[in-house]
Amino acid sequence: HTGMTLYRNNTNGQTWNEPVTISKSGDYGDAAYCDIAASQDGRHVAALFTKGNKLHLASSADVGKTWDLTELPGAGAQDAALCFDPRGVLYVAFYTAEDKTMHLWGGKVK
Q1: Would the pTM of this model clear 0.90, i.e. be above it?
Q2: Which of 6, 74, 83, 95 sits a CA distance of 20 to 30 A from 104?
Q3: What is the Rg, in whole angstroms, of the alpha carbon atoms belonging to the chain?
Q4: Which residues does the chain have with pLDDT short of 50?
């Protein structure tokens, strides 16, 4: 188990950069699910489920070269999705089975 890694390219898929580690297996566990989105200004983020069903947001302000990790509220979160609006605000939607509720989180990524 390696955790979560990201491969980047800027040659339309012809060549790929070395993988960048977003989270190590021992730090957050292996991600069972990942969704990724990019803002218009080049910021990339990934929402991932890890051991214990905790929802983590990995954000990058340098096109995926380095990452910051934040745990979002939503223990037991399922079916997460994320997107940016044209102003650069990130939205994360997820369902929690415990309270049978769909949640929406939105905010600027630092």
Answers
A1: no
A2: 6
A3: 14
A4: 1
